[in-house]
Amino acid sequence: MGELGVYIQVPFCQTKCTYCNFHTGVVSPGRFAPYAAAVCREIDNHRQLFESSGITISSLDAAKARAVDTVYLGGGNAQPS
Prior knowledge:
The protein has two helices and four strands, in the order βββααβ. The longest helix has 16 residues, at 29-44. Helix content is 28%, strand content 26%.
């Protein structure tokens, strides 16, 4: 079983850095909460989402199965403290 890294983009920033080429936008904190909730729902429901697209977990080749060993959340800049 191989390892797999997952990147989840958080496309919200307090300011846009001049050097940044990520697809991000400057938005209010109120727009972040619904996005974060939707990402959590998608993660929770991934099996159902796959199956509704005709992909069943049991149909995947077990020899090619990969375990997620790293999750990186990024895309927005850090908030000043």
